[in-house]
Every structure is written in C-alpha cells, then in structure tokens.
Amino acid sequence: MKLLNWYKIIFLSISSLLIFTANVWASSSSDGATLYKLKACVACHGVDGRTPRESIYPTIAGQSQAYIVAQMKDIKSGVRHNAQTEVMRGIMGAVSDAEIEAIAKWLATLPGGTGVVGEPTLVAKGAKVYKSKNTNCIGCHGADAKTPLLSDNFPKLAGQNKQYLITQITDIRDHVRNNGQTIVMTGITQGLNNKDIEAVAEWLASLPGSSASNVVAAKKEIPVKTEEPVVAKKEIPVAAPEVMEASADVMTMEGATLYKQKGCFACHGADAKTSFQPLAPKLAGQGKAYLITQLKDMKSGARDNDTTVMKGIMETVSEAEIEPIAKWLSSLPGGAGVIGNAALMAKGAEIYKSKETNCIGCHGADANTPLRPDHFPKLAGQNKQYLITQIQDIRNGVRNNGQAIVMTGITQGLSNQDIEAIAEWLASLNGPK
What we know:
Number of helices: 23
Strand content: under 5%
Distance between the termini: 87 Å
C-alpha cells in the first residue's frame, strides 16, 4: 500500500511538472521577448536589439513589424541570401511563421539606438547625397531616415550600423541583394561610388533611431517633416495671398481659358482626354502637383524626351499660368479605357502586379491611386503608345526627370514585349473619376 501511494505521488509530481512546462512554453511561444532569447537572436543583435555584437549585423529595435517579418521570411526561404544571411538562414529554420510574427511585434515596440557621431565632413557629404534630387532617398525613407513612406516596404535607416549599411547598399547596387523592394534601389544606386555609399552610411549611423514614443506611430504613414521637404514640393509654386483667397472655381475657370488660349487642345483634345495622336498623353484627372512638375520640367528642359514641341509651347506659358491650367486639368474626369487583346492584357496585369516590378507600390493596384500624387502619375486609361514610349525611354535612360530614376532599375528587366503588355492593360482601364 505504501508503495502504491509513493507511485501516486511520483505520477502527480511528473504530471504537474509537464503541465507547468507546457504552460510556460505556450506562454513563451507567443511572447516575442522570450522567443528572441530562446532562438538565440541575442547572440548577434544584443539583448535589446540595438547593440549588435559585430558591426556587420543590423540594429533591429524599432524597425516596423511588417518589414521585419518580410525580411525574416525572405532569409528563411533563401530569397534574401547576401552577406551574413547564410548564418541567419540556419537559425531561421527553427523559427515558425507564428514565432516570426511574435518576435517582430516585440522588436517594433522597442526604441532604436542613439546614433554614433561620425567624421563631420563625411557626415555632411552623406546628408547631401541622401537628400539630393538624384537619389531622392527621402522619397521612400523620409527626410529623417526613420519615417519611411511605406513602413511595410521600406526600412528605417537612422541609427543603423555603418558597416551594415555599406554592405547592404553595395550589395543592392551590385545586384547581390535583390529581395523585396531592393529593385527600386538598384537603379538609384548605380550612380553611387563606394565613397558616396560610405558617406551616406556615416550620416545615417550618426542619427538617433526611432524613439519609444514614435515606434507605434511609425506604423502609420508619417508625413515627411517640413524642414526637409520633398524636392517636388519645392517645385510647386506658392500662390500669393490674394490668389489663395480667390475661390477655387475662379482659378479653375482661368485654367480652362488658358488651356484653350495656349493651344493645348490641339494635341490633347478640348476635354484633355481625346488626344489627336497616340503619342500625346491624356491629361484629364491627373494630379495637380504632378502636372505642375512635368510642365515646369518641359519648360526648363529637365524633361527632354520627345518634348520639343511642348517646350516651344511652354515658352509662351508663364510660371503663374501653369498652376491654373494644372488645377483645371486635375478637376476633370478621365476617359473610358480601350479594351485590347485579352491575352496581352492578362500578361500586362500580371507583370504590373508582380513582386519583381511592384508597380502597385507607387501607382496603386488600380493604377489610379498613386502613393504620392505629387510624384507618381495616374496610369489607368492612358494612351497605349504614349505609355510604351515613356516606359522605354525611362528604361533606356532617355527620360530621367523627377522620379524616373526610381523606375530605371525596375524597368531593366522588362523586354519590349513586356512593356507593350503592361501598356495594353493600363490603356484598357477606366481613367481617373
């Protein structure tokens, strides 16, 4: 009898231990902080996610959850395979998708680092390169390098390790890293030499990372701070007070009159959506700021691909007249699409929405709702031949004004047949409402 009681005691003790262990594991499996330690992340990235053991490892504290998840999954699958990711891939084999989400969620709540003050001359050069029109890094990563336009797609760079930044930017430039949105950067980085990259990294590493107070806010689309305005915003004329006080209808009416007086209708049609030649674009419903930028670039010669006729016309249009014309055009509805070849349209839609091109990231899934209307045009319902010409000119380096540099890298992988298919599909869509 005593022996039986002893067995009961042992059985109950083991059962309690197993239940306790199971409860601890169930708790820890959903606890990002615990998983971060269990999966040995601390070995390379530090206990706080911002004090890596080696300079080649990134600071990951305060990065957005969605971006961390995407990178961890790409490393796990082998899609991202540059630099130290081979080491990471082995570790990631023991991390489930659910655990990735939990770890990323915890890391996103942490504040970033404080930044490391660098060499002043190099820091100044890096800031200049980062903010220049040729790179326009602020367009995706924010003026402060920690408020990316799309936190799901683009990383926060402020306070990142210098050597890690140098390695990643160099690998993207040299086509060694090509996962996610890096295709956007490939074209941009072609104009950067190693010294430029080092300077950019020196400046970024000197900045403070995300603070604890703005980590959550960073998940929303945070606007670029006014002290570092996006280049396109500088190009938009500021109306004088008396003009601002006038009704929008007055300016719209003025724009309609100017559109006729300047002869715009001769190519683009009286309604700005029935172009008389396929190489002339439809303008109705396009974003006002985008129109202003393009008109100014044609006037100045910054955009010079097949724009000789337009440049001559723009010489008769003053800076003050550009805005009302653009305002009127932006108030108009776009036209109906032109249905084309079914097989070609299907191919075009597939390429447009693919991960390799990610056209939807800038122009919207419907090609009518661009992420930044002041930077990116509405493409839906546009003339097929005009689209083909512009995409090819951007790919071939003939057109390089505004944000065309972003598209240069993306379009390198497109053949003329691919471009025709995309244009066929875009032309079939209804234009802006």
